[in-house]
Write a structure and sequence with these properties.
2 helices; 3 strands
């Protein structure tokens, strides 16, 4: 039987919003900065063996759920 460990992250939105905020009302630049932060964090977690199981599905749920096999 395979066992997994799980990681729940709810800070990705706050991290990305902190980087995007200085762009103010320039929506295109703001979205690009936000996306780059989220993509970089997802790539970092992926490199550590974490697989994304569930992304936030509504504005009030900011939990990203990841899993990876336990060796």
């Amino acid at each position: 039987m395979q066992h997994f460990e799980y990681l729940v992250r709810s800070d990705l939105h706050d991290m990305a919003e902190d980087v995007a905020r200085p762009f103010g009302s320039r929506e295109r630049d703001r979205l690009k900065a936000y996306t780059e932060v989220v993509a970089a964090e997802l790539n970092k977690l992926g490199a550590q063996g974490w697989e994304l199981v569930k992304a936030p599905d509504i504005a009030t749920n900011r939990n990203w759920i990841f899993m990876r096999p336990v060796a």
